[in-house]
Amino acid sequence: MTRLTAPFLDDPALGQVLAALAAQGAQALIVGGAVRNALLGEPVADVDISTSARPEETVRLAEAAGLRSVPTGIEHGTVTVIADGRGFEVTSFRRDVETDGRRAVVAYSDRIEDDAQRRDFTMNALYATASGEVLDPVGGLPDLAARRLRFVGDPRARIAEDYLRILRFFRLLAWYGREADLHALAACRELRQGLAGISKERIGHEMRKLLDAPDPSPAMALMAEAGVLPLVLPGADASDLPDLVEVEREYGTGALPCWPRRLALLGAPNPAGALRLSRDEARTQDRIAQALAMPAPAAAYRLGRANAAQSVLIRAARGDRPAFGWCHELARGAAAKFPLTARDLMPELSGPALGEALRRAEDAFVESDFTLPPEALLRIALQQEARA
C-alpha cells in the first residue's frame, strides 16, 4: 500500500470538508494534482476533492455540517465548499457519455473506476483518502515513479474528448515527465489538427504554463517534431531554447518572468494573435523584439531595463555573450536623462517641427552613448531648421 504524507492532510479545513461528505457513507477523496505533486515532493497549490455524492447531495451534506457551498460548476458536477474561509472544489464521480472534442456530456457514477477512466493522464488519476492511503485505479503509480506521461486508456480516445489535451500532454511532460509514451506522441501528431477548433485563449493559457516550466526545451522539441508547435505558434523556432535555459541558469534571472523571454526567443511573427495575449503581454513581446535590434544600454533607455535584460539573455542564447558588467550597462542606460526639453527650443520651434527636433537630438544623445552635452544637442536640434 502506498501512503501519502503531505502537510495538507493535516489541514483542519480540508478535514472538515472530507468528513462532511463522508458523514452518510459517501466516498470523499483527494484527487489529481495534489496527490501527484505530493508524491513527487513538488509544491501543492490546490487540493481538489472527488466524491461519490451527487452535486445536490454535496450541498446538503455541506450545509448539515455547517459549511457553505457555492455551485461554481454545477453543470459539470462541481460544487465549491467553503471551510475556514477557503474554498475546496468538490466534483462528483463522472463518466463520459459523448464528446465533441471540446466538451463532454457526462453522467454521474458511484464508481471511482469510472471517474478515473475519464481523466487525462495516469499520473493525474491518483486518489488519496483523508488518512493518506493512495488509490490507483489505472496504474498511475508506476508511471509516476518513472516520470512517464501516459494517457489513461486509448490516447486517441482521450484526445478526441478534448483536443486541448495535446497541449496538456507537452505541458505536463515539461513539468513532471522524463519519458513520453510513444503511443501518446503518435496520437498527438495524428490528431493535432483538432487544435484548430480550440480557442486561442485556451491555447495561450497552456503555452504560458508550458514555457514557465524549469526546462521546457525537451518537451518543446518533441512538440515541434510532432508538428504541434508550428500549428499553434506559426513561425516559432525552439532550437535555441536549450541554450536559453542554460543561460538562465548561468546568469540568473532574478525577478524576470520566464515565459515572455522564452516566447520572444521562439521568434514567432505574431505571438499575440496566435496565443491571444493581453495588451500588456503583447506590448512586452514587441518591446523585447525592439530591444533585440539595438545595443543593450540604448534598449534600457528606450524600452526599460527589464525588456533590455530579456534581450541580453536571448542574444546570449544565440551566441552573443554579453561583456562583463552588462548589468551595470543596463542600469546606466536606464538611468540616463535626456538633457533637453521643449522649452529649450522655444520660441524658435513649435508644433511638429519642435517634436521632430527633439527626436533628432535624442537619437544623437543615445547614439553617443549618452555623452553629448546639452550645447551639442541643441545645435543638432536646430541645425536642420537652420538649413531649411
Descriptive report:
With 388 residues, this protein is an alpha+beta fold. Helix content is 50%, strand content 12%. It contains 20 helices and 11 strands. It has helices at residues 12-22, 33-40, 55-64, 112-117, 140-145, 155-161, 165-176, 182-190, 200-211, 217-225, 229-232, 241-251, 258-266, 271-275, 279-291, 296-303, 305-317, 326-335, 351-367, 374-387, and strands at 28-31, 48-51, 68-73, 78-83, 86-92, 94-99, 104-108, 127-128, 134-135, 148-149, 179-180. A 7-stranded mixed beta sheet has the order 3-4-5-2-1-8-9. A two-stranded antiparallel sheet has the order 6-7. α15 packs antiparallel against α16. It is elongated, with a radius of gyration of 28 Å. It starts with 11 loop residues before the first helix and ends with a helix. The relative contact order is 0.06. The model has no long low-confidence stretch (mean pLDDT 93).
Notable traits:
single chain, 388 residues, alpha+beta, 7-stranded mixed beta sheet, two-stranded antiparallel ribbon, 11 strands, 50% helix
Strand residues, percent: 5-15%
Quick one: how many beta strands?
11
Regarding quaternary structure, what we see is single chain
- Sheet with most strands: strand arrangement: 3-4-5-2-1-8-9
- Give the proportion of residues in helices: 40-55%
A few lines on this structure:
The protein is α+β, with helices and mostly antiparallel strands and 388 residues long.
What is the secondary structure topology, with strand pairs?
Layout: H1 12-22, E1 28-31, H2 33-40, E2 48-51, H3 55-64, E3 68-73, E4 78-83, E5 86-92, E6 94-99, E7 104-108, H4 112-117, E8 127-128, E9 134-135, H5 140-145, E10 148-149, H6 155-161, H7 165-176, E11 179-180, H8 182-190, H9 200-211, H10 217-225, H11 229-232, H12 241-251, H13 258-266, H14 271-275, H15 279-291, H16 296-303, H17 305-317, H18 326-335, H19 351-367, H20 374-387
Parallel strand pairs: 2-5, 10-11
Antiparallel strand pairs: 1-2, 1-8, 3-4, 4-5, 6-7, 8-9
